[in-house]
Design a protein that fits this description.
Length: 198
């Protein structure tokens, strides 16, 4: 089952069965509200698979082995990685779907898991109710009848034109039509002196 088919409802952390490492896991909802579990991270160096496994498949396998105590190898047929059965059983223990057997702490027995299933059911409802993220509300658009819509006038381009230069103002000329005397006094000629007497 691919990641695109699963909607993640919950992410959690828990110790491994040995308690020597820390696991990160996810619980998701698939088609038909099918519950799925997968391991997404480990604090240790061991390899593991991030593939989803349906909880329904796990319970079906446990039903087939109902007369035997549950161990990590009980889930081995569901995974390709050798570490995933033990990691998945650790998640089931953390979610109280199984508990250690009193006289054999390495083996487990099933529980009804009411708290787990109630939580997942609530998460399914809250996720469905939340819906997709919606941005800020936009102002409502008012529909206007087509008849009331007027076509805006065609845009006109304004061209800046220079005003024609006005000719320089010329003061009216004064014309002399008659002269009654000299306009400028003529320079006086020096008087002739009589030659001196000898």
């Amino acid at each position: 089952m691919t990641t695109d088919d699963i909607r993640v409802l919950k992410m959690g952390t828990c110790p491994s069965l040995s308690g020597r490492t820390k696991l990160t896991y996810e619980v998701g909802c698939g088609l038909g509200s099918q519950i799925n579990i997968r391991i997404t991270k480990t604090a240790g160096t061991g390899s593991f698979s991030k593939d989803w496994v349906a909880l329904e498949r796990i319970h079906a396998l446990l039903e087939q082995n109902a007369d035997k105590p549950i161990a990590s190898h009980t889930l081995a047929s569901l995974f390709t990685s050798a570490n995933n059965p033990g990691f998945t059983l650790a998640v089931m223990k953390h979610e109280r779907l199984v508990r250690p057997v009193a006289d054999n702490p390495r083996c487990y027995e099933r529980l009804d898991g009411k708290a787990f299933f109630s939580e997942i059911e609530a998460l399914m409802g809250s996720k469905a109710a939340a819906g997709p993220k919606v941005g800020p509300a936009k102002k409502a658009l008012v529909k206007t009848p087509l008849a009331a819509v007027s076509t805006p006038p065609a845009a006109t381009t304004l061209i800046e034109t220079k005003k024609p230069e006005e000719p320089p103002k010329v003061k009216p000329a004064i014309y002399v039509t008659e002269v009654h005397g000299p306009l400028i006094n003529a320079p006086k000629k020096p008087a002739k002196r009589a030659p001196p007497k000898r």
